[in-house]
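Dear colleague,

Thank you for sharing your sequence with our group. We've completed the structure prediction you requested, and as agreed, I am returning the results in plain text so they can be pasted directly into your records. Please verify that the sequence below matches your submission; if there's any discrepancy, let me know and we will rerun it promptly.
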Amino acid sequence: MRGRGVFLVVLVVLALDQILKIWVKTHMSLGDQIPIFGDWFILHFTENKGMAFGLEFGGDLGKIFLTCFRIFAVAGIIYFIRDFIKQKVHWGFIFAMSLILAGAIGNIIDSIFYGWMFDHSRNQLATFFPEGGGYAKLMHGHVVDMLYFPLWRGYLPEWIPVWGGKYSEFFRPIFNIADSAITIGVFIILIFHRLFFKTENSVEA
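Please find the predicted structure tokens below.
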């Protein structure tokens, strides 16, 4: 049953992640944005070549390295999840690991296939499987990001050291559902790890 639960979590997260990414690619060009909840929640289409939250890493070589690292990481996570299920580890921990697994797979799909599946999105709507081929070869795709939460924008008070008087924005990173799943999974583990791995002594205490 736990194995089915893991499969369901991964399937739901991947479906939501990929459906939104494909919709953004085929309905928005780079830089386009759609307000969802005033100025606090915006769909803002951007792409990055590397890590989560719009960060990049080491150019094309770094891109291939990062994709390969993600693939090995996914294989490792799958192995450990299977082992945790056999050991009957707390379902909350397995659920969190499933979120991390789903997020990693979601961004791997972009990195490996999106360059081949779509043409570019600069000043145009991307085409799904274009006749002339995609904007990049396999393993060189860009990760699609769109979730933008600029909760506060303005000038910081002068009394704040270093940044005082400067324009600031919170929360600036633009990310996707896969990034969110990874972040939520990590926070669940950090917050509830004592519950997940409590010992008999800690229970008696």
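Summary note from our side: Confidence is low (pLDDT under 50) at residues 200-205.

Kind regards,
the structure core
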